[in-house]
Design a protein that fits this description.
The complex is a heterodimer. Helix content of chain A is about 40%, strand content about 10%. Chain A is of the alpha/beta class. Chain A has one domain (about 15-315): Thiamin diphosphate (ThDP)-binding fold, Pyr/PP domains (Rossmann fold, 3-Layer(aba) Sandwich). The model of chain A has no long low-confidence stretch (mean pLDDT about 95). Chain B is built from twelve helices and 14 strands. The chains are: A alpha/beta, B alpha/beta. The structure holds thiamine diphosphate and magnesium ion.
């Protein structure tokens, strides 16, 4: 490991050791507060279409985003608000996608979690699960060909997405090319309503690393410091040239699949297991033990202010106008099929 | 009692499971959860072991159905959204579709596709895929527009010895209602005249039938009688019913929700132009979605797809010629 990182949350780190507590704490709080707000906006009818939240998954996701640097590539999935914020996606961009502002990077053409910004190195996901692995691999191949060194690509997937052919093909390809790709699997035990035993027959997804010939790391996804350590380590390994890294975090999503879903199929014993811990509560407890309760509260209040301001700003922005759209799907002009009767 | 389009689909599957031990259902979340749209609600409980949750593996799901069909079963595969069936295309187009022709043995399976646009669904949860599937020989492609057709056509699809792609429109799932399940069916593979008229023929299918009927009502107030033809099944395509209608009206507008390049509406115009040229008093025209991915924002989506207003404008244009 390149950097020594503080171990447990309870004790303040020694000198010379990086203390991620503030960056991680702020990131997961911002994500949670923003997502609570999105849920409210959805229930108030202000969001058309689905709302998919990452409650309970902030530590794993946020640690991934924070482990990256500017110039790296991030391809988040549906529960990665924390990772996005950690990597530097502006909060207003998230809200623009959800509230349908014309000013967002997707201009209202695509929405919610399908947002991204290629200029920032954030790939906008397509819905088809598993598709992003090979795409990030392609970005990394291109960087290698261009002689750009020291870049890492990180993409996220759920336990269910590991069943896709694309996931397999993408990870295998990256392994063959020994690309600096980090794949973070949030194993939350369910894919929509389908429990992991209907999804795969292996005990732990991290065991698959060996079969792909890549390095694997298991982590308790509810433990923020452990997530930070493991993600940081995996990203550094990839950056050092150790090839693809498979990180598998065990946790639970503490919300429905989408806000339309109550998640009633999640078994009680899952909820009361270690997986069911809320990483924000874990962090808050740790902060208390360190005597930094006030700081935590302060970060929360700052996040609340930031969210309210961003919502107010985006709410006043213009919505997409079909008459100003150019309705062009190709950069080459004059390619669109124009209907005779349209 | 009222029956929705979705109820009809669930009821047809229930009947098939009850009547035919070869039938089983495979798809993501179709088991106890009853499917993303609840098209298989309660079926797993009623038919233990025959309504199974699949992994998120569309390619393998379709491939498994091909094998089961070869072995004499009647699998129904539910895609969570039509859009994700692209991942299973290889098995469907290269395997299911070629099996009878290559082996002389049937491949009876149904691929259910929750299709079409709804507000806020965006580029990957809105697609209509009938054009792609229809292009390949060896597949039947059904696009029911009514509660009655959803029920009777799904039962037909399950009985057919060939692979069937069953395009269900999500916009119709919950709000399209009928009094009761139908007792009889329109003959298989035949189009249906939904509304008779003598001035112009509007040929369409799936959710666009309802937009076309609304457009016809608008034009009725202007004194035009629009004949609306619902194709019901886009492959095979019932050219006879279409030509008979054009013979009555002399004018044609073909409408489809999918993209303009090729597809069912293009096929209709091509057939009428070549086989019914003398019947026409005006050039036949088409109306489809715009040639971009399907937009997320409702403002853009509403302008992207054909609507009653746009269909009415299209009809007027052909009538003016
Ligand atoms: C190829 C493909 N098939 C189906 C879907 C529909 N779908 C969206 S999310 C989801 C469940 C994903 O589960 P998992 O990967 O475990 O992620 P989680 O939702 O638990 O974060 C499904 C089936 C999809 N997006 N892509
Ligand atoms: Mg999952």
């Amino acid at each position: 490991m390149a950097i020594r990182v503080a171990g447990a949350l309870e004790s303040k780190p020694k000198k010379g050791v990086v203390d991620p507590i503030e960056s991680l704490g702020r990131t997961i709080l911002r994500a949670r507060v923003l997502e609570d707000k999105l849920g409210n906006l959805y229930r108030a009818g202000r969001i058309v279409g689905g709302v998919y939240l990452g409650k309970g998954q902030e530590a794993l996701s946020g640690a991934g985003g924070l482990a990256l640097r500017k110039g790296d590539i991030f391809a988040p999935l549906i529960r990665d608000m924390a990772g996005r914020l950690g990597f530097g996606e502006p909060m207003v961009d998230a809200l623009r996608a959800y509230l349908g502002s014309r000013l967002g990077p997707m201009k209202g053409r695509d929405g919610n979690i399908h947002r991204g910004d290629l200029t920032r190195g954030i790939l906008p996901m397509i819905s088809h699960l598993g598709a992003m692995l090979s795409t990030v691999a392609g970005v990394l191949v291109a960087k290698r060909m261009k002689g750009e060194k020291g870049r890492v690509g990180l993409t996220c997937a759920g336990d269910g997405a590991t069943s896709t052919g694309s996931f397999h093909e993408g990870l295998n390809l990256a392994a063959v090319e020994r690309l600096p790709l980090v794949v973070v699997v949030a194993d939350n035990g369910y894919a929509y309503s389908t429990s992991r035993d209907r999804q795969f027959a292996c005990e732990d997804l991290v065991d698959r690393a060996k079969g792909y010939g890549v390095e694997g790391h298991g982590v308790d996804g509810t433990d923020p410091m452990a997530c930070w350590r493991v993600l940081h380590h995996a990203v550094e390994r990839a950056r050092e040239g150790a090839g693809p890294q498979l990180v598998v975090g065990k946790l639970l999503r503490l919300c429905g699949h989408g806000e339309h879903d109550d998640g009633s199929y999640v078994e009680k014993k899952m909820k009361s297991s270690e997986r069911g811990r809320d990483c924000l509560k874990v962090m808050e407890e740790g902060m208390k033990k360190r005597g930094q309760e006030k700081e935590w509260q302060g970060w929360r209040e700052e996040a609340q202010r930031e969210v309210e301001e961003a919502v107010a700003k985006v709410s006043a922005e213009p919505v997409p106008d079909p008459f100003e759209e150019d309705w062009r799907a190709t950069q080459s002009a004059g390619m669109a099929e124009v209907m005779v009767a349209s | 009692m009222s029956v929705t389009y979705l109820d009809a689909i669930r009821s047809a599957q229930e009947k098939a499971l009850r009547d035919d031990p070869r039938v089983f259902i495979y798809g993501q979340d179709v088991g106890r959860f009853g499917g993303a749209f609840k098209a298989t609600k309660n079926l797993a409980e009623k038919f233990p072991g025959r309504v199974m949750d699949s992994p998120i593996s569309e390619d393998a799901m379709v491939g498994m159905a091909v094998g089961a069909a070869m072995e004499g079963m009647r699998p129904i595969v539910e895609m969570q959204f039509a859009d994700f069936s692209t991942v299973g295309l290889n098995q469907m187009l290269n395997h299911a579709a070629t099996t009878f022709w290559r082996t002389g043995k049937p491949c009876p399976m149904v691929l259910r596709l929750p299709s079409g646009g709804t507000p806020g669904s965006g580029p990957f949860h809105s697609q209509s895929m009938e054009a792609i599937y229809s292009h390949y020989p060896g597949i039947v492609v059904m696009t029911p527009a009514t509660v009655e057709d959803a029920y009777t056509m799904l039962l037909e699809a399950i009985e057919l010895p060939d692979p069937v792609v069953f395009c269900e429109h999500k916009l119709l799932y919950y709000h399209l209602k009928s009094e009761a399940l139908p007792e009889s069916a329109v003959p298989a593979f035949r189009a249906r005249v939904v509304r008779a008229g003598r001035d112009i023929t509007c040929v369409t299918y799936s959710a666009m039938v309802h937009e076309a009927v609304a457009a016809a009502e608008e034009l009725a107030e202007e004194g035009y009688e629009v004949e609306v033809v619902d194709l019901r099944t886009v492959k095979p395509l019932d050219t006879d019913t279409v030509l008979a209608s054009v013979a009555r009206t002399g004018r044609l507008l073909a409408v489809g929700e999918s993209w303009p390049w090729g597809g069912a509406s293009a096929e209709v115009v091509a057939r009428v132009a070549s086989e019914g040229f003398e019947l026409l008093d005006a050039p036949p025209k088409r109306l489809n979605a715009k040639d971009t991915p399907i937009p997320y924002h409702p403002n853009l989506w509403a302008a992207h797809r054909p609507t009653a207003v746009r269909i009415a404008a299209g009809l007027r244009e052909v009538l003016r010629y």
